[in-house]
């Protein structure tokens, strides 16, 4: 017989088990022993945990008349968490791989990047450009993006929009400010984006980070606007011909990520079509799924896809969060707001992954 004091499982097996726990459970188990207490700060375990976590998608949204956020998980259901550790009233502007970029509501120009799972946060320094340059039309950036590659250290925050010099009318140029967490500095570049259309509330929310670039869907459905963060260059990415040519006239289109690939979801009255860009450089799109909407026909006009994986799609309506399981082809209501409220659920909904990505690598 073996020594009863020998561990039941090898250390690597234990790490694989712990890496599949929710972050809250992982931190609760820190008190078990010294080795487990050090895991959330161990570089190998952080990499392992994040590599597994990014394969799953959840949905986060503000809870009406509450300081809490809901987190909807396809397996674990609905949970609540708070951003009260920021000690400020904020709204989420962008989400990427476990980090949130939040803007202060009472103090314009103050931004935070936080990991709500670990409650770690970082206040972004103010850019020196802001006192002399005003974003148009309301003084705030039209686009806010957050880029975080879990295989690398650090993150970038992007704020972009048409701008005007103080006391002057807008000059038609597109200013972009990029914050690099490793240097703790902002950099600026200005571009002339000819024929650049507008952005809807959903296209502002659904910024997608893939292939080292941030992507936004233009409201005219003519193309996807991409920012190459390595070279500080804007690029226009083509949509599927069926969409850009108007062949799907009357349909609604939304930009999402699908397991590390750029994706668009096309909604008609009775069908939801999921497109995936299989070759980014050649801009080759293909349809990976067509889903009947007949069983939720009454909800279709007010439904918005928020995030997805190869297994499921999360969608939000005015009051509800639904999940569609692609294998079983079943719909399920995951959350419903009770009573009256002002803003619809989809207005504040973002894709979210629960990771232990640090915010303060360079500090």
UniProtKB/TrEMBL annotation:
Domain F-box: 9-48
Pfam family, one: FBA_1
SUPFAM superfamilies reported in the protein's UniProt record: F-box domain, Galactose oxidase, central domain
CDD domains: F-box_AtFBW1-like (cd22157)
NCBIfam families attached to this UniProt entry: F_box_assoc_1
Name of this chain's protein: F-box domain-containing protein
Organism: Brassica campestris (Field mustard)
């Amino acid at each position: 017989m073996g020594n009863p004091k020998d561990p039941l499982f090898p250390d690597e097996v234990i790490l694989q088990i712990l890496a599949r726990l929710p972050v809250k459970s992982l931190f609760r188990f820190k008190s078990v022993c010294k080795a487990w207490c050090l895991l959330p700060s161990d570089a190998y375990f952080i990499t392992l945990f994040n590599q597994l976590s990014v394969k799953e998608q959840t949905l986060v949204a503000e809870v009406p008349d509450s300081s809490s956020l809901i987190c909807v998980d396809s397996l674990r259901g609905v949970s609540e968490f708070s951003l009260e550790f920021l000690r400020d009233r904020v709204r989420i502007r962008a989400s990427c791989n476990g980090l949130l970029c939040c803007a202060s509501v009472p103090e314009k120009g103050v931004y935070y990047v936080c990991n709500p799972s670990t409650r770690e946060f970082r206040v972004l320094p103010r850019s020196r450009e802001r006192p002399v340059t005003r974003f148009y039309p309301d003084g705030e950036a039209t686009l806010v993006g957050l880029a975080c590659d879990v295989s690398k250290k650090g993150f970038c925050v992007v704020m972009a929009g048409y701008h005007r010099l103080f006391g002057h009318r807008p000059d038609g140029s597109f200013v972009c400010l990029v914050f690099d967490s490793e240097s703790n500095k902002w950099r600026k570049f200005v571009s002339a984006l000819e024929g650049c259309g507008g952005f809807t509330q959903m296209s502002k929310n659904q910024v997608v980070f893939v292939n080292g670039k941030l992507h936004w869907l233009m409201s005219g459905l003519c193309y996807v606007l991409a920012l190459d963060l390595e070279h500080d260059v804007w690029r226009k990415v083509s949509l599927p011909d069926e969409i850009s040519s108007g062949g799907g006239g009357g349909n609604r289109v939304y930009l999402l990520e699908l397991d590390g690939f750029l994706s668009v979801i096309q909604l008609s009255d009775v069908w939801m079509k999921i497109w995936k860009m299989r070759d980014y450089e050649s801009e080759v799109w293909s349809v990976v799924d067509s889903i009947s909407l007949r069983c939720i026909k009454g909800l279709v006009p007010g439904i918005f896809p928020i995030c997805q994986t190869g297994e499921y799609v999360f969608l939000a309506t005015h009051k509800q969060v639904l999940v569609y399981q692609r294998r079983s082809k079943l719909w399920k209501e995951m959350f419903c707001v009770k009573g009256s409220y002002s803003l619809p659920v989809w207005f504040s909904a973002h894709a979210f992954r629960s990771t232990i990505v640090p915010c303060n690598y360079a500090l």
